[in-house]
Specification:
Blueprint (H helix, E strand, L loop, with lengths): L2 H20 L1 E9 L6 H19 L4 E9 L4 H14 L4 E4 L3 H14 L3 E3 L16 E3 L4 H14 L4 E7 L2 H16 L3 E8 L8 H8 L5 E4 L3 H13 L2 H4 L2 E4 L5 H7 L7 E4 L8 H14 L5 H18 L5 H7 L4 E4 L2 E6 L4 E14 L2 E13 L13
Parallel strand pairs: 1-2, 1-3, 3-4, 4-5, 6-7, 6-8, 8-9, 9-10
Antiparallel strand pairs: 10-13, 11-12, 12-13, 13-14
Bound molecules: P-hydroxybenzoic acid (PHB).
Amino acid sequence: MSRIVKRAAAIAIAAATAAQAQAEDIKVGLLLPFSGVYAALGEEIEAGFRLGLDSFGADSGATFEILREDSEASPPVGLAKTRKLIMQDRVDVMAGVVSSGVLAAIRDVVDGAKVPLIVANAGNDEATGKACSPYITRISFSNAQLNRPMGKYLVDHGVTKVVTFAPDYAAGQQMMKAFGDAFVAAGGEIVAQEFTPFQKTQDFGPYLAKAKTSGAQAVYAFYAGSEAIAFVKQYDSFGMKEALPLYGPGFLNSQLYVGAQGAAAQGIVTALHYVPTIDNAANKAFVAAFTAQAGHLPSEYAVQGYDAARALVEAVKSGATDRESLAAALPRTSFDGPRGKTAIDPATNNIMQPIYVYDTVAGPDGPTQKVLAQLPVEVDPVNGCEMATLN
Ligand code: PHB
């Protein structure tokens, strides 16, 4: 080797070593339910998150270390695990959170400790409303965002008298309020409302019997996870679907559990920010990559994990390295992904995105989603959010 070549090689090695020393190790605290009624949602969000890091993180110059904790979808457990991740594990950023109740419980801790949180599910309206924080960026949806448009949609489609059903906790209450306000404003009437004990109701029979004789034209319901599987199956086996068509946010018949619901899921018209049948190139690539990795089609929960990882990687690529710089960069992420064009609203740090209304129909491999309408991008009102500036 000539002296010049040797010297060039030495410089190259020194540069590579310096780059390695600069490479960031980002510690991510992933807080999700891995047990209880929302366990499947936690697994699905994690699978999407890991795929997102693999897909977008390779050329970021950073390594991502994931520390996962089971929130059990319980506010006190979620709070204890958050404290552990922040104080003991010293994570740089947190991601996840499925339950609106857990998000409410951990809000003050992440805000006070100045740890950025990427919400990958929990729709709690207050977290991007009057309890908003510059440390909280929501990449999933808000409870009102998905339910408000359905109020008008139902009235426009001739449905004016409904009974509502939801689990009795923050998400159920907020979703039914947003739907109900829009439905009544459009001329609809809420005949009755059922709030069933969260994580405790297995038999919906007594509630369904009441709805049948209520004089309503339809039922509007939110359930998710194993509660959605039980509700949709019992609704069908009670012979309710013919008399009272079923509507709701699409967690009710998510791709994640239409397989378990089978034919009982057919004919339910719902709304979501993502279904695997959305026809765009980014979604086709995502569906192929996720299916190859997970062995099943992705649901909205998968895309929320995937986009949460993408937002994190974008923030790192823009130069963010620690809690404070990540918190500043995360709300600035925007991209054209599997659900279409999305961006974060700087007034609230909630995502702005199109909403898809769809019917669940029989497909060659089981129930599938037929998109009936793409509604315009939904932007939440600020709902009392006064966004603090980062210092
Ligand atoms: C929530 O608690 O915010 C929540 C949980 C499950 C869903 C949607 C919202 O599918």
